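tokens incoming
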């Protein structure tokens, strides 16, 4: 039940986010610390990365820092501006004076203009609600802060600041309490208006060796093709403070989107921390056809929405599949196709603009072809009409930027084809598991699913290692052959395990129905079918070691993957 609290700001407290530590970071010694906004930019070259209570919080905080960098540096306007920043170890020096100028808007507890909040926000009954409304419980029903079960009664000011940023980006949908002055309220309620802006995205960003590199690699220039940043683009702290209710408007660029006020929020606190919150809907924003504004997601064309809306093309953010590891979806990261194909048809998918930007950097020679980055994918998956977060996706693909090179697509093509090699081998293993089960008189669906899952798990580490070193090869096609050989040997090893576990009933076999008639299926025939399928999928690779009746001996990397 909600309880009444004194109004915020009544005790004259202050928590200045520009000087007080609240952003968790990991330094190069592996030590986690909390820093202020000013300290993060001053030490960015000596830090590995931001960390967060959740990966989605890290994503939201990174976007906040990027909005600050774009605004303080007033750019970059073009690739030459970016090159100067990249070559200057002190490139973030202007952020300090900028923060001093706007410090009044970064006070979490300010009674008039609190950071990312609406000072006048209240319900008709002056209710204040549990902090559970902004602290994400993931997975659903298993609160992240388990030590605080059954609810979050108090947050430090630093924690509250992080969850405030996260709420604007990833808050769930559902019915929310209507605030006084919100014209959308009906009988004290506002009906579902969707998740926070970040929750719509299949989030993608690029990580470098340091936080400084990460910030700069994601700092997309204003003149990037097929991307728009208006001259008057501004972050939330350079706009008028939000009142109750929402403003229906279009975003002006990355500063705006990275700090989009999708919620109206008001923290309640005492001398020792934050004790409650009022939370409602803020500025609405639909996700269709925002590809020219939002750089941190891939996009998919939606023919369903085109028919519904009577317009074409319609693009929506391309969501991540939590069941599919990032390396298997590398095509969505490195593949590129023209916005208009044959006959003027719109592309089915669009690569994230942030990766288009990095592709431009390597194509124009600003980054060496072998420069290593991690394409990081982060997203929330919602359930039950988007009223809860069911799962969080957090994965990465380590690769050399040559895979993004627009003028030399050989490396990207082989990286994408390598996933196809893995898929075909996994299908062959799935068929083997099914046939062994059928030979024993059992249902094959369960064994097939387990075999496929184990196969993808065994291939993941070798693929990441192979992809990491692909750029060092003069001929990427030859490296593809090396990969096919690894896949072949991993698949044969896993197949032998399935054969060994099949049992006497599968060895004896039974008659099964096929399209062409009946067949006596036993483990020996299932194995011949499997090896034939592997050879058809991968050719007949030369083994790393000696061969035997059990197939080629595993390569060192293969053995490690299967250990």
């Amino acid at each position: 039940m909600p309880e009444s609290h004194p109004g915020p700001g009544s005790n004259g407290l202050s928590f200045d986010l520009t000087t007080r530590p609240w952003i968790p970071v990991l330094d190069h010694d592996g030590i986690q610390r909390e820093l202020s906004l000013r300290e993060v930019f001053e030490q960015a070259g000596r830090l590995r990365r931001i960390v967060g209570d959740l990966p989605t919080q890290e994503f939201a905080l990174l976007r906040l820092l990027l909005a600050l960098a774009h605004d303080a540096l007033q750019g970059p306007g073009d690739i030459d501006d970016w090159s100067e920043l990249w070559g200057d170890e002190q490139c973030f020096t202007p952020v300090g004076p900028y923060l001093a100028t706007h410090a009044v808007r970064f006070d979490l507890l300010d009674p008039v203009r609190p950071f990312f909040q609406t000072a006048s926000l209240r319900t008709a009954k002056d209710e204040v609600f549990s902090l559970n409304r902004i602290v994400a419980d993931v997975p659903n029903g298993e609160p992240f802060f388990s030590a605080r079960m059954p609810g979050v009664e108090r947050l430090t000011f630093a924690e509250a600041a992080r969850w405030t940023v996260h709420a604007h980006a990833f808050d769930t949908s559902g019915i929310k309490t209507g605030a006084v002055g919100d014209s959308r309220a009906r009988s004290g309620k506002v009906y579902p208006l969707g998740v926070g802006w970040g929750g719509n995205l299949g989030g993608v960003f690029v990580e470098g060796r340091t936080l400084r590199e990460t910030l700069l690699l994601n700092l997309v220039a204003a003149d990037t093709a097929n991307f728009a940043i208006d001259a008057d683009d501004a972050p939330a702290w350079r706009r008028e403070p939000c009142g109750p209710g929402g403003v229906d408007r279009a975003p002006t660029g990355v500063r705006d989107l990275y700090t989009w006020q999708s919620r109206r929020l008001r923290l309640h606190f005492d001398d020792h921390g934050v004790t409650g919150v009022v939370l409602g809907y803020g500025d609405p924003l639909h996700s269709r056809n925002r590809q020219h504004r939002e750089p941190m997601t891939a996009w998919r064309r939606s023919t369903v929405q085109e028919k519904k809306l009577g317009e074409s093309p319609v693009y929506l953010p391309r969501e991540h599949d939590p069941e599919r590891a990032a390396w298997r979806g590398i095509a969505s990261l490195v593949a590129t196709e023209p916005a208009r194909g044959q006959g003027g048809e719109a592309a089915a998918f669009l690569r994230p603009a942030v990766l288009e930007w990095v592709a431009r950097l390597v194509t124009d020679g600003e980054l060496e072809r072998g420069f290593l980055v991690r394409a990081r994918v982060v997203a929330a998956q919602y359930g039950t009409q988007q009223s809860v977060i069911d799962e969080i996706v957090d994965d990465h693909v380590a690769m050399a930027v040559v895979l993004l090179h627009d003028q030399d697509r050989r490396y990207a093509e082989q990286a994408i084809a390598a996933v196809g090699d893995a898929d075909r081998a996994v299908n062959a293993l799935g068929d083997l598991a099914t046939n062994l089960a059928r030979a024993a008189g059992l249902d094959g669906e369960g064994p097939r699913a387990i075999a496929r899952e184990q196969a993808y798990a065994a291939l993941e580490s070798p693929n990441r290692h192979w992809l990491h070193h692909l750029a060092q090869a003069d001929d990427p096609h030859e490296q593809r052959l090396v990969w096919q050989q690894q896949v072949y040997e991993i698949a044969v090893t896993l197949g032998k395990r399935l054969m060994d576990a099949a049992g006497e009933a599968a060895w004896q076999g039974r008659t099964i129905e096929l399209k062409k008639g009946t067949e006596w299926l036993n483990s020996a025939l299932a194995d011949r079918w499997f090896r034939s399928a592997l050879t058809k999928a991968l050719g007949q690779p030369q083994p790393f070691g000696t061969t035997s009746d059990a197939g080629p001996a595993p390569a060192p990397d293969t053995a490690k993957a299967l250990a």
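note: The first strand starts at residue 23 and ends at 27.
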